[in-house]
What does this fold into?
Amino acid sequence: MKRLLFVCALAGLGLFGFAGACNLLNPSLTRVGGNNVYGAELQNNTGANFLAHSFKVAFVDASGTVVETRSGVPGCLRSWQNGASDFFSVRSSLAAGATTAAIGSLDLTSPLVVGTTVPTAASLSAVTAATPPLAAANSGGVASMTVAGTLKNNDAVTLANPNVCVVVFNSSGQVVLTQRQSLASLAAGAQTSFSFSVSVPDSAAAVSRVVIWVDGIEGEAPTTPVQATATLSVTTPTATNTAAATNTPPPPTATNTAVPTATNTAAPTATNTPLPTDTPTTLPTATNTAVPTATNTSLPTDTPTTLPTATNTAVPTATNTAVPTATNTAAPTATNTPLPTDTPTTLPTATNTA
It folds into this structure.
């Protein structure tokens, strides 16, 4: 535990009776993203109890020159009781390389109110702090830590405006950073669950222990803070990666294949087959047989052989051609035949046949 002693110059505030010391404990300067964050714990050994206070931090460069000063830095807790500690942190506005050290102290230019806290029976439970897998060494990356838990007001009066403060410690026990979150007031016997994110260094060594503090207001005074150490856990990206893999075999592949195959094959096959098979065969067969047989018998000897051959071939090809061919042939043949000398015998024969 690193400890620095500061004589609290309270005489200027009219508090001549307090000649104690403030102990600066566990300070650290940690890179978080592109800036350095100074965190520390200030222990009150003044013999006085305070209900309002703030801190001051000076950042220095490699040459020891103060390059940035931050005043009025709020503490993690509302109160700063004798013998107790408060925690605080502040981020430099300069690039990480521009600051190499920092030092914190009580800000004597801000309000410093003397008073005693109100005891409380508020309690914390199921407090957790979850981070993604963190890097072994701090290279300036940032990770999101989710802090969650339940706060219950066990008092008989309302716990007004409770604050939940997160204090992150590194593996050396130094304060890395703090973050405070306000909750809604809790009636007597009521409880509430909370969950919020804290930006922490992407470094396992920088996030070694997490402690949650809570205080509120009862009447007009701050309550005595209560605390709980969070259970640390690491959330793996298993759920996220599974969802990405699910998208790889796209559902449209199975759907598109099944729909066109079943529909296109069945519809044309059943409809097209019966139409050409039944109709063309029956109609030309009955008509073509009767017409050429009766007509070709009464023609001269060398004609019958040619006529049926040409007529039978054309009729099956088209239905409309067969019907007019039989009718038109009979009429001209019977009329033209009587003209030659040896035909009179044939005329009555052709007529009776028709």
Notes: The two ends are 135 Å apart (CA to CA). The chain has a mean pLDDT of 77.
